[in-house]
Amino acid sequence: MSIKLQKEAAIRQGIADAVIAAGLTDAENMPSIILDTPKDKTHGDFATNIAMQLARVAKKAPRAIAEALVEKLDTEALNIEKVDIAGPGFINFTLNNAYLTELVSQIITEKDAYGQSEFGEKERVLIEFVSANPTGDLHLGHGRGAAIGDSLANIMNKAGFDVSREYYINDAGNQIMNLVLSTEARYHEVLNVEWEFPEDGYRGQDILTLAQQLVDKYGDQFIGEDKLEERRRVFREEGLAYELAKLKKDLSDFRVNFDTWFSEQTLYDDNKVLPTLDVMKKSGRIFEEGGATWFKSTEFGDDKDRVLIKSDGSYTYLFPDIAYHKNKFDRGFDTLIDVWGADHHGYIARMNGAIQALGYNADQFEVQIIQLVRLMKGDEIVKMSKRTGKSVTMRDLVDMVGLDAARYYFAMRSSDTHLDFDLDLATSQSSENPVFYVQYAHARICRMLSSAAEKGIVGGYADYDASLLENESELAVLKMLGDYHSVVIEAAKKRAPQRITRYLHDLASTFHRFYNHSHVIDVENIAQSKARLALCEAVRITLQNALSLIGVSAPKKM
Length: 558
Known about the structure:
Strand order of the largest sheet: 6-5-4-10-11
Number of strands: 14
């Protein structure tokens, strides 16, 4: 636990002790004590509304409660420098900042582990994201979903959850048959054999490339109606392997790797679909009508009830998807988080209802919606790739702006808001470019540490005295460093990777102000230089740790 979190815990306990000492209530009726960080720094380091919370129990005005509580508060033991009562009874605390200097040693000692907590108590969480049909390239929406899902997994793991990443392969539906039929048509085309292209077939260059590979490997051995069954079986296997290999490479290049690639087909092979219906029937929400089997999803906020099994015995898309989510719980996960595209918004209520019909709680299932991405160059919307003349893919975007910019910008906004991706800004080397601004802070520190060594400050910050960090700009940096643990926990709780990018920008901004106002390397004052260099190293470590959570590198040179 960080020093700041320890301090918050101590203050909460001190408030509780003061409440009891003042006779305002007992431990059994003590409300949860909330400590907020005031936006206006003149209001102190922490604020609490405990006086308002106690008004009904203590049968006193909040301000009178606040005064009684403050009188009993052991400010010396809690390193509280000043206490103010504001408005109707808010209590503001200003701390003695001496404790903050301990952060430098903690961060430098913990290195990569700084920011780690046990908040999540090893709750098992499965995040399923991207899950694009294995029939083509990943588009910009997939890229945003990949960045959000992976960042969220990193953040929740850092906050003490036990998170697994999963990609659901839709390899049992009509889209796979279309892939097979498209490959079949292109295969015959390569061999100059007349063949009708399927109406809903995939016409991308990748299918033609796959067909050429099949001809190179098998020649014409699959020509002829008598080879239809074997041809389609082989083309299915080869087509899936080819498309999945592309997906895996593109995602790995995007710094996204999955713990599990789950095949939809295995649900059928392992007889996991139909038995799911028996479990749902126990909830009383399954009924038969018109020869079909229905789910009463309207009882959970859906706009109409949904068919699970059609009158011809075939399954709708929803039914195996429910079986898949049951399978996730069967594997021991406590919470399921799905990252879906904006077009799936209406699907949430029915799946949430299905989760409850399976006997689980509604809060064990969450959905992160990924809204649309528009590429902007100036005032123009970019729709086509210069390289291919077709829709811009995730791979194209990385080629345009670089991997770090793509990952940072995708994580920078809440996933449920539309994103205008400014190509000019993302490629500019200026303080206006958020990712450049943050990475430059890291590179600046690396350059400073090298410069210190060149100027004879041996070890850079070895044997530093952190108590020398006491001016306003130094304390501002220390307070930002102390916030990191809380930011990671809040980002995990709120499922909000954008809180990390916001923190990164604030930390970089605070550091740049400190750098511009402080003479960090001063050969005439080695002790002060070492203290400030140690502070810079603590900032560097924290920047690197936070950037890693969103899949962005921390360059040493820029």
